[in-house]
Every structure is written in C-alpha cells, then in structure tokens.
Design brief:
The complex is a heterodimer. Chain A is of the alpha+beta class. Chain A has three domains: 189 residues, Uridine Diphospho-n-acetylenolpyruvylglucosamine Reductase, domain 3 (2-Layer Sandwich), CATH 3.30.465; 70 residues, Alpha-Beta Plaits (2-Layer Sandwich), CATH 3.30.70; 60 residues. Helices cover 27% and strands 24% of the residues of chain A. Chain A has eleven helices and 17 strands. Chain A has an eight-stranded antiparallel beta sheet with strand order 13-10-12-11-15-16-14-17. Chain A has a five-stranded antiparallel beta sheet with strand order 3-4-8-6-7. By secondary structure, chain B is α+β, with helices and mostly antiparallel strands. The longest helix of chain B has 20 residues. Classes of the chains: A alpha+beta, B alpha+beta. At the A-B interface, strand 7, helix 6, strand 9, helix 8 and helix 11 of A face strand 9, helix 7, helix 8, helix 10 and helix 16 of B.
Amino acid sequence: MALVETLCTRLAAKEPVSVIGGGTKSFLAGRLKDEPVSMQEHSGIINYEPTELVLTAKSGTTLQEIEACLSDARQMLPFEPPRFGVQSTIGGVMASGLSGPRRMHLGSARDCVLGVRLINGLGQHLKFGGEVMKNVAGYDLSRLSVGAYGTLGILTEISVKVLPIPENEQTQVLECSQAEALATLIRIGRRPYPLSAASWIGGALYIRLSGAANGVESAASAIGGETLKTADLFWSGLRDMTATEFNPAGEWLWRISVAPTTPTNTLDAFCFDWAGGQRWLVTQPDDYSPFELAARLGGHATCFARDRESGTGMQPLESGILRLNQRVKEAMDPHGLINRGRLLEEAH
Amino acid sequence: METGQLVAALAAGVQSDRVLFREQDTAPYECDGLTMFKAKPKVVVLPETRDEVCHVLKTCKALGVPVVARGAGTGLSGGALPHADGVLLVMAKFSRILEIDEDARIARVEPGVRNLAISEAVSHLDLYYAPDPSSQIACSIGGNIAENSGGVHCLKYGLTVHNVLSVTVALDDGSIVTVGSDALDSAGYDLLALTIGSEGLLAVVLEVTVRLLPKPEEMRVVMAAFDDVTKAGDSVGNIIAAGIIPAGLEMMDGPAVAAVEDFVKAGYPLDAEALLLCEVDGTKEEVADELARVEAILKESGATMLRVATNEEERLLFWKGRKSAFPAVGRISPDYYCMDGTIPRKHLSLVLRRMREMSERYGLRCANVFHAGDGNLHPLILFDANDPDEVKRAEDFGAEILELSVEVGGTITGEHGVGIEKINEMCVQFSSDELTQFHTVKAAFDPTGILNPGKAVPTLNRCAEFGKMHIHHGQMPHPELERF
C-alpha cells in the first residue's frame, strides 16, 4: 500500500501527480506535463475464481501475468486488448480503453469492467462497482474511468469479467474488395452465427467463428471461403498491430471509429476490424484531416503515430459534450492535478 | 411556490391540456411499481415535443422546482416517485419508433417506447433487442436507461449498458446533447456509461439508439432437481468451469418451488431442495452440442432429476413457473418483502445457510429465487403487515440480508435500482467520501439539483433506517406482469 498512500498524500497536499503503467501506450493521447510515477510496483492478482468469471488485480499487474493466469484456467479477457509490450499493465489497458478483434462479439474493455478502486483528485481512495456481474448501486464511475487515460482518478484495483476460451475456433478467408467484404458482413450479421471477429486487410475478409464444434463447422460451410491454417498468428498480429501495414515508415497511423455500415468509399482505409466499426488509415505526418473526415462520418479519429509531439491526438469534442467532459473532470479532480496534459488541457 | 403560478409558467411553453394539476388528474401518478411510497406531484406534464421538455426544464430550473421524469412507472425501487413540490415529467407520449436500420442492426426510438415493442417491431427481420426485464411488456426504454435494466439473459447478452449505442438527453438547463454515437465508441469520457443507470438524476432521455441481435435459431431448456442447495450451486460453477455460458441460468429453493408448483403446475418436483433451469441458444448444431454437455454436467453434479423440454410449449411452461415465483409466493403469505442483492456465487450456500438461521431467529419464512448465472438473489421474506411486530422483524431480516450481501463482496441492488427504497442501504455499501463523489458528479450535470432530488444517493446525514419493497396481500403493482 506504500505507493497508494504516497499518491494519496501528494494529491491531498494539492501536488500534481502523473502516473503510468508500463509506458507502452505513452505515444497515445497528450504528453504528460509532470514526471510520471509508474504503478508497476503496485502489482498482483487479488482475487480470481474461474467459476465466478471475475478477476481482480492491482493496476500495476502486467497483462502478461493476468493472461497467463487466465489461460491456466482456460479463460481469457473477452476484449483482447492490444499488447504493445510485455510491460503493459491492466491499469494501462483500462486507462486507454483499447479493445481488439473480439470486441465486436464479446464487448469492449469498458463493457467488461465490473468495478474499480481509484484515487480521486482529492487524494481519496474510493471503490466503485464491485466483483459481481449485476450491480446498479451508484453511478457507474468504473466504466466512466475506462478510456479516461487516468485523468479522472488513479486506478489502483480493477475487477473484470472474464470468459472461457472457446472450445473451437476456425477462421474463414474470403478474397474480395473492402466494399464486398462489408456487404458480406451485413448479410451474415443477420444470421445467428457464432462470429467472434471480422476484419478486412490485404484484399481479403477474415471471419473468425468460435464455440461448439458443430456450430462452428456448419457456420463455416455456410459462409464459405478457405479455412486459414495460421489463424492464431493472424489474429494476434491484428490484435497487437504488428502487421507491417500498422507500422508505416514516415507516415502517420490513424484509428477511425465509425458506424460499421459506413460505406468503404468514404475513407481510404487499408484495414477494417469489428465488422467495419474500426478502420485504419495512414496520412502524411502532421496531417490532421482525419478529424474532419471522422466528424463528417459521425465518428471520431485517434492518432496512433509514434512520432507525434504535440496535441492529444484525440478527436476535438463538440461544445456541449466538451463542457460536460470538463465538468466531469472537475468533479473527479477539482484542482486539475492528475495526469496533466494527457487529455483535455488542449481543448480548454 | 403557488401551484397556479407554476402552471402558468409551464403553460407558457407547453400545450395547456398537457399540464395536469387538479388532484383527480395527478392522483394516478402518485407512485410507480413500488406502491409503498406515495406522493402527489404538484403538477404532471405530459410533453409531446422536445421543445416542451426543454421548456419544462428551463422553467423549473429558473424557479428551483424539482423535476422527476417517469417512463411507464413499472420500476420497483421508487425511482419515479413524484416530488410533492415538483413536476412529474411523464414521457409516455414519446412513443414512436423513429428508425429501424436492418443492415446496421440498430433501432432509434423515443424513450416511451416499450421494451418488448422494439423486439416486436423487428421480429419480422429475425432480429430482437436482448435485455428482457420481467416487466418488458410494459416498461419503457427510457426507464431501462435510467435503471440499466437486465433480464434473465444478461449473463450471455449483457445489460442495457451493453446494448445501447447512444442516448440523446435534455440537460437541466434545457440544452440537448447526444452521448455515444452509431460508432462503437466515442471521443472523450464515456458519458454514455455514466448516463445509463443514473436513475434520472443526470438528464432526461429524449431518444435512444439500441443494438439489435439476430434471433437465435433455437432455444432449449433443461430442468434439474437437487436434494441439496449447495450441490445445485456447485453445478452452476461446474457448467461455467466447462466453458459454457448458458443463455439463462435460474435457481429456486424448496419453498419457492413448492409455492410455484401449487400455483402454476409447471411439473416441478416437490421434493427438490433446489431447482435449476438452464437454457442454451444458438444455431441448431450449437444447441445440440451444448445441451448434451450441460446434461452430463448436471448429472455428474448430483442432479436427482433431469428433464429437457421436448417442445416449445413445454419450454415456456418450465419458464412460466420461474416467472410466476413472485405472485406464487404472494398467494401463500399476506405480504412479502422482495430483496435484490447480488453476491459472488461461491458464497451462495453460506448466504442461504445464514438466511435460514435468520429465518429461524426472526420467526419468518423466506423463499429464494436466484439469477444463478450472475449471482443476483431475490429473497422473498413472508410476513403479515397487520402485525406490527412481524413488520418490524421483516424489515430487520431484510436489512440483515442486504448487509450480508455487502459483507460477502456483493451489492445491495443487482437490477431494481436504489431509487427511494434502498437509499439508506447505500450508506452500508459506500463510504462518505464515495457518496460525496457521487454528489459532485451529479452536480457536474445538474448543479442546482432539480433532477429527481432525494433519490439514488443519500445525503450524508441520512444514513439511518432500512427500507424495502413491500407487497401487501399479494397485490403486486402491475399484476398483469410476470415478475422474476
């Protein structure tokens, strides 16, 4: 508890505090104004009972440790968070709120959070939500803190819903254009197939099916295409963004979140995931036009460039929503002490 | 403030026949599904346009008058209980389905649309809206947003928060914002998650965009009887340990089974100490596969009897028993209190044992129905309201159950909400600092506190006595609804 107590004391004394997990996602959002403290020493799985489908860990616990522990019980984090390095912590996973391919089927990081403990801007160590699936006592400040990059409070403990690893998985590959891929997904999305991921990249649509053997097999034959032999490699490459397309030399990578049915000719994506809901494109450095593009399409853009030096790389907020964001920040951190520079400062 | 003055101010922006203030007109709105709490609102407004809603909010904010929004009024925690000095904003006339996009599998609806009406409107497209609270034939989607409603299928398909893409709301000052979007996530803080389940304290819902799912090809249910509650609880753990997430997983204890069987004749075995219903859904192939595995696990877990519903009629009969548990218990006792705690499932046998001890100590019977998959327990405490001593004992019994839920790591409310009913128990679950944090978040949306004041989050000096749902002589509010 030493680290937590120190952070509480510093905040109570109105001292600015910045925290990071493993620092693997420091390239996202804004640069911290204050020298960060790493939460890595605040580590360890506190409670895990496979049959309860809940795991609680201190925020500095590495994703690697959590996934290894889950996998021993044949379970997993349902939202497949991207892994940008072995130091990646569960606190960082929740602070960024990123989710991988399985998100379209089993929900996002935010969907899987059941409770958190956090230190608010007054230095108070508070607990919200819990370790049970259904809990409607109090405002949902646990899910609110997901994707907040720590700016609403320093996460110290997190409880997540976990799920069994599917008995069987099979991936079908259909060579087609991006537009054809989207049309195919709209069609099969109407059927109760056990889809667990659907992505288009490099001229082919990849559809992953998960569940009982017979169900997977019959859906695969209905969907058609070739069965991918190296499916695990493909999906982990997409999840962790290790494929070469995601690391363009001299260009900027952008994530565009739009309605999944958004026509493919409205943006020049080299890949889509989540059956069309998450699109990836590249621009020249310092080209911020994706913000305007995403706004026009009713979505939002996030800059994933590793060499961006200014700004938050986050979609500017419309004025009514911006005002609410600022007020919520003030409610959680009234003196503006936590993770200064990470999210909203530029927008003020 | 004079009623006449308030009515005049409201009528300046709302068609006059939509503003009710005579006692005979406001009386029908004096309570929601929790009838033990009643209050006549000063004025009831039934707006039909967004401009009218915004006018009401602006007017009330300027005059410092409380506003309580109400959907269908089926809530079980008094969340829509009127404020005696305030305006009750009844959103029932916002009942249009605005758009159905079958390609995107979404529906855009007004807040007064009934939960089941959404599924009915898209049924011909083989789609449905997944969250299915027991009151789904009557409850409105706006109320579902306020309460973050669940249903018997939420272990597999999630709660309201998992099935809603965006909500357009009116704020306290009459401005309109949309939180969330048609995309799967949005920029900035997750205000959608914050809005859902906020019990009408942060904003008034004007429009909701929900996700639709393809209907499962097949649904099958298996009924299993156990001679021991612990074995039944363990069998649930064994099913999940085997990697199966059933669509529904419900349990009843012996007293609940006896009450139900006498009422519904669902074919439940009367000698069972615990009865489990497990539903699997999906494609035909998936269902066949999973059903066989579930049966094997239940057998290994010591089920004394196993029956798979052989046809749709029988499947519905099995469920009818479970869904009739509340009225069935209402028949065997003049009154009952329904509790709504959620517990980590591993503590089920401990909690049931402790409740049996309490039952003996308080001299009151107790029947249990349990959303076993997600740990949401509904103990029904049987008592007679005409006996003041029994009332007192039932209240203490209930309070002790909720404290026990918190003690074992659970929560005071899994799905009914805090409302006015469990406002005092919030003090057991949260510290003063945590409650204060809730109040500052509320103030971020509604600094003058006009929206649903006095509900959901207690003031710090209020933590005193425990309140509960009180059913008098089996008279459920909305007796036509299945309650489970």
